[in-house]
């Protein structure tokens, strides 16, 4: 498994195919090896694309990192460094759910690495954003308050990063609990809904100034975490965005959540995006 050193962190990645550079970023704290991601990369690779899939800090086999104004901003900065180091910039930056947020932040904070954007399952709405704050940070903060960093390292949400990268246990234990709590509370605040910030960490004026081709897949009306209104407003804010229907039905997110609970991959149907992505990119 290839590893890169970016800003003092070991970052696990794979590159699939040859041709125009792309990067795919999943959501949640899911790794690059979650079913569906490599399959989408392979399908895009067959259309003349060189596709980077990577483990963000705090996911998979990469190092954990607790720094920066938000977790997504920290990951965006690492992605920009990884694209430069691998000579893949500028790339088409694509992702879903949390990956769409990291993709947008990368393009806004590091314009030199972005050629275009492709985004789906964009998190938004008061319920969607505030539930993320609790999901990503709440249990870790509570464990640190109660029992310190050893208890944080025992939480199920961190089991994969410890199993796949044992050095991460040392990185957890080296954290000062109060500094860790302060950082994660700051990360929580990044998700607070703001009238002038559709996407956490990105001002609406920054989105209006993002002069890049963008493909935005409309979210399902039944999706409470990635609301349809968020996808439609994002497409309206981005000056060169095209809003399109996704290659699945309205209930896709809820169906994928139910399937994931029974062991099926949350991103298992992402390869269905490949034809639309390939057709759109042909005109870039």
Structure, explained:
This protein has 284 residues and is of the alpha/beta class. 43% of the residues lie in helices and 16% in strands. It contains 12 helices and 8 strands. Strands 1-2-4-3-5-6-7-8 form an 8-stranded mixed sheet. α1 crosses α12 (274-281), α2 crosses α3 and α4 (126-147) runs antiparallel to α8 (177-189).
- Number of DSSP E strands: 8
Binned, the helix content reads: 40-55%
What is the average of the pLDDT values? 97
Q: Percent of residues in beta strands? A: 15-25%
Element-by-element helix/strand order: EEEHEHEHEHHHHHHEHEHH
Please list the strands of the largest sheet in the order they lie side by side.
1-2-4-3-5-6-7-8
Structural class: alpha/beta
Shape descriptor reads globular
């Amino acid at each position: 498994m290839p590893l890169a050193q970016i800003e003092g962190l070991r970052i696990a990645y794979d590159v699939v195919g040859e041709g125009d550079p792309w990067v795919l970023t999943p959501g949640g704290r899911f790794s690059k090896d979650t079913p569906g991601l490599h399959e989408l990369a392979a399908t895009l690779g067959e259309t003349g694309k060189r596709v980077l899939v990577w483990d963000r800090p705090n996911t998979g086999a990469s190092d954990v990192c607790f720094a920066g104004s938000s977790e997504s901003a920290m990951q965006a900065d690492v992605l920009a460094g990884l694209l430069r180091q691998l000579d893949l910039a500028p790339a088409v930056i694509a992702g879903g759910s949390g990956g769409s947020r990291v993709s947008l932040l990368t393009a806004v904070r590091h314009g030199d690495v972005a050629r275009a954007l492709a985004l789906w399952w964009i998190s938004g709405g008061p319920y969607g954003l505030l539930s993320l704050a609790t999901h990503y940070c709440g249990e870790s903060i509570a464990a640190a308050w109660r029992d310190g960093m050893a208890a944080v390292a025992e939480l199920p949400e961190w089991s994969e990063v410890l199993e796949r990268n044992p050095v991460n246990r040392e990185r957890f234990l080296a954290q000062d609990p109060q500094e860790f709590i302060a950082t994660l509370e700051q990360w929580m605040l990044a998700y607070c809904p703001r009238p002038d910030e559709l996407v956490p960490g990105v001002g609406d004026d920054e989105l209006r100034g993002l002069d890049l081709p963008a493909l935005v897949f409309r979210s399902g009306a039944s999706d409470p975490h990635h609301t349809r209104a968020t996808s439609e407003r994002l497409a309206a804010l981005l000056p060169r965005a095209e809003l399109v229907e996704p290659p699945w039905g309205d209930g896709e997110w809820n169906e994928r959540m139910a399937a994931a609970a029974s062991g099926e991959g949350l991103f298992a149907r992402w390869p269905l995006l490949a034809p639309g992505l390939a057709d759109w990119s042909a005109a870039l």
